[in-house]
Structures are given as structure tokens and as C-alpha cells.
Amino acid sequence: MKKLLFIIDGLLSFLLIFTVLLLLVPVSLQIFSRYTDLIPRYMWTEEMSRFFFVWLIMLGATLGVREKMHFDVDFLPQLSDKVNRRLLFVCQFFMLIFSAVIFYWGIEFTQFGWNQTSELADMPMWWIFIAWPISGFLWMVFLLHHMFNPTGVDESLQQESAV
User: Are 99 and 144 in contact, with CB atoms under 8 Å apart?
Assistant: First the structure.
């Protein structure tokens, strides 16, 4: 299981970096075409940059859950280690419920956009919408791993991440 999670973590890191690089292309074309007359003004660049940004957010959130880098707010005084572990488990349980909701409605969202295409790029919309169920599923996998890690030590803190 650890090896599979390590492979998924590496793939997510690669996809995140690749998405950032892909996002640079349409954004750069937008900027250069706006301020120079060297290249024509492309309409599809705004739409594609929006789509790449959606994937960037969902992949980044997934790695944030994997690396336990999501934000938290401490409003209780420092409690014992046993109580802190239980509170962390409860918080992760609620995050798991949220992830299941994102996964379920992400599938519905993807089915809704299955036969739709984007206006300018003429791209199937399910390519964008499928980011939600994929992220929701991976959030659940990573949260279950964090919740039921028998050693109590998280491998993500021990390994070198590309991000």
C-alpha cells in the first residue's frame, strides 16, 4: 500500500508541475497578443487557462491532503496527546465525509457534462469536470491512510516530494 501511495504521490507531483507549465502557454499568448500586434488575439486562450487552473487547484488540493498541508485553526487550549489524536481523527472523519460528497457529486457533474463541449476550444467538458471525482476519491484514499496509519508516523513527511 505504501508503494502504491508513493507512486500516486509522484504522479500527482508530476501532473501538478506539468499543469503549471501548460498553464503558462495560454496565459503567455494572452499577454503577448494583448500588448503586441505580432501574434493574433486568440479567443481560446482564456478558456484553456481557466481549465488548466481548475486542474491545478484540484491537483494541488489533493497533494495538500496527502502532505497534510491543508489549513487548520487551533481554537482550543493545548490538550493532552490522547485528546489531540482523537480530535484530529474527528476532523479527518469530517474531511472524509466532505471528500465523499465531492466524489459523489463530482461523478454527477461529470455525467452532466459528458455530451457537452466547450464553446471556443471545442473540447469535451468531461475532461475538465472529471477533476472533481478524481480528487474526491484520492482525498478519501489519503485521509483513510492518515486515519488508520498503524505506525503513527506519516511517510509523506519522511519522503522527498517534488512539490
Answer: no
- Cα dihedral 146, 151, 156, 157 in deg (nearest 10): 120
Residues 71, 65: Cα–Cα separation, whole Å: 10
| C-beta of residue 108 within 8 angstroms of C-beta of residue 57 | no
Does position 74 have pLDDT exceeding 80, yes or no?
A: no
Identify whether the C-beta of residue 47 lies closer than 8 Å to the C-beta of residue 29.
Answer: no
pTM for the model stands at 0.81
Q: Give backbone dihedrals phi and psi of 117, rounded to 5 degrees, phi first.
A: -125, 155
Supply the pLDDT for residue 81: 84
Cell of 68: 497534510
Helix (H) or strand (E) holding 19: helix 2-35
**Radius of gyration in angstroms for the set of CA atoms belonging to the chain, rounded to a whole number:** 19
